[in-house]
Amino acid sequence: MPKITYIEHNGTQHAIQVPVGRSVMQGAVDNNVPGIDADCGGECACATCHVYIDAAWLDRIGLPAPGSQEASMLSFAAVTQPDSRLSCQLQVTDALDGLIVRMPEGQH
Amino acid sequence: MNQDSRHIVIAGAGHAGGSAAAMLRQFGWPGAITLIGEEPIPPYQRPPLSKAWLKGEATAESLALRPAAFYPDATIDLRLATRVTAIDRAAKAVTLSDGGTLRYDYLILASGARARRLVLPGAGLDGVLELRSAADADRLKAALRPGARLAVIGGGYIGLEAAASARALGAEVTIIERENRVLARVACSILSDFFQGFHRARGVTIEVDAQVAALEGSGGRVAGVRLGDGRLIACDVALIGVGAVANDELARDAGLTCLNGIVVDLAARTDDPAIFAIGDCTSRPLPLYERIGRLESVPNALEQAKQAAAMICGKPPPTPEVPWFWSDQYDLRLQIAGMPFDTTEIVVRGDVASGKFALFHLTADGTVQAVEAVNAATEFMGGRRIIARRKRLTRVRIEDMSVSMQELAT
Known about the structure:
The complex is a heterodimer of chains A (108) and B (410). Chain A has 108 residues and is an alpha+beta fold. Chain A has a single domain (3-102), classed as Beta-grasp domain (Ubiquitin-like (UB roll), Roll), CATH 3.10.20. Chain A has three helices and five strands. Chain A has helices at residues 24-30, 55-61, 68-74; strands at residues 3-7, 13-17, 50-53, 84-86, 100-102. In chain A, β1 and β2 form a beta hairpin. The longest helix of chain A has 7 residues, at 24-30. Chain A is globular and about 30 Å long. The mean pLDDT of chain A is 90. Chain B is built from eleven helices and 26 strands. In chain B, β11 (172-176), α6 and β12 (205-207) form a beta-alpha-beta unit. Chain B has three domains: 7-114 and 245-313, FAD/NAD(P)-binding domain (3-Layer(bba) Sandwich); 128-242, FAD/NAD(P)-binding domain, CATH 3.50.50.60; 331-409, FAD/NAD-linked reductase, C-terminal dimerisation domain (Enolase-like, domain 1). Chain B starts with 6 loop residues before the first strand and ends with a helix. In chain B, the strands form seven sheets. A five-stranded parallel beta sheet of chain B has the order 3-2-1-7-19. A five-stranded parallel beta sheet of chain B has the order 9-16-10-11-12. In chain B, strands 22-23-26-25-24 form a five-stranded antiparallel beta sheet. Chain B has helices at 15-26, 60-63, 70-73, 134-143, 157-168, 189-201, 249-253, 298-313, 377-388, 395-399, 405-409, and strands at residues 7-11, 32-36, 76-79, 84-88, 93-96, 101-103, 106-109, 113-115, 128-129, 149-153, 172-176, 205-207, 212-218, 221-227, 232-234, 237-240, 244-246, 262-263, 275-277, 282-286, 291-293, 324-329, 332-338, 345-351, 356-362, 368-374. Chain B is 24% helix and 29% strand. The longest helix of chain B is centred in the last third of the chain and has 16 residues, at 298-313. Chain A binds chain B through residues 29-32, 34, 37, 39-43, 45-47, 69, 72-73, 75-77, 106, 108, and chain B through 22, 25-26, 45, 47-48, 62, 65-67, 70, 74, 298-299, 302, 318-319, 321, 324, 326, 328, 333, 335, 376-378, 381-382, 384-385, 405-406, 409.
């Protein structure tokens, strides 16, 4: 099972085995990882599952670019960066094994 | 964990109660947590019930708030098919439907809301349904096959979402609305007209200004809805979606202040310091709008769950949020930020006919109180920020699409 490491804003790390087919958001919620709120449950409607993905990682795994809904939602999410993504839109695949995501200071 | 002998009882295992239990553990609550739910299944998400779940596009796993193993793993004692039937505030104890009692140090009431019932002849016939729980959704789903005729009483969000899902399943749909437009209680007439037109163009019949006189049937099963003007809308199944009523009786019986819901403050406290209330069952401060109100929404349930958990665990209170709501119908996504209290003007940004637009609701001094966005996520997100900052905008700037939402929100 792919391992995803979630790093809270305060530096606390959570290494989680997330089944293929779940989203990166669900992996966090299923394991009660703080810092990903996911208010809308994965509908890309709320932008409270915002994470930062290391740019080097992004290039290496070639994640599909954000869709237009995700890009629109991200345009006003809390403290966005070029490496911002909504984790509900990232499906876990074997290629994501080892992925590291960091959480912003807040989701609201 | 559980070195601490203190005990939190959460009465209600919906979105609010389930989330409160999880957040208490996130915030480091060291004591026991008992989560009591009336339904036979662990906490799940209700929004998909009228959408993906009804259309068969969601699984029980995707509906669940968290995997079943989460509760034992987090040492949360989840008791299903059980209700809290009474609160003894003096003894700090609750009585359960199975006859047991539980002492608490803190009690969190998360009893939710129930579908409003109509007192109508025939309301008890088989095939007269409501849509609140997964069991309700399964009953409706079983009846929705190609060619089946669905009568929806009430043109609110539940009714419209169910209508859209039913059309996707090939059912024939008639919506019966008492007011002169759908969404009359919850949206402006521009939005009502847009949604009415969209549904009608997809084969839904909408009867407005229509009173329901009775549900009629044969052999104990519904066969039609009799209107006040004498017409009969023939149907195989009828869905009543006429709003929800707060489940505040338990609190009322215990002497807590209730006013269309259990009255709480911004830390989700009731007037008993040991008792909190969260979610659909509460009447809460709306700080942006300087009034109290009941919000039936998942974001509200989560915000209040966080308020209660933070207060109990001694964490800083969360920043108050702009209330928001969403609804998916066909390929439309409606996102609403804020509430249009005290507004005098509606400004349209974008072209309504294009199906991608936003409605800005302004007070007399131009303060943006609410933004209703259809397939316009940027306007919704920018609207949340504008409302939170109590920004004033002019009609000319809002209408000017060459002015970006980033500029409007700055």
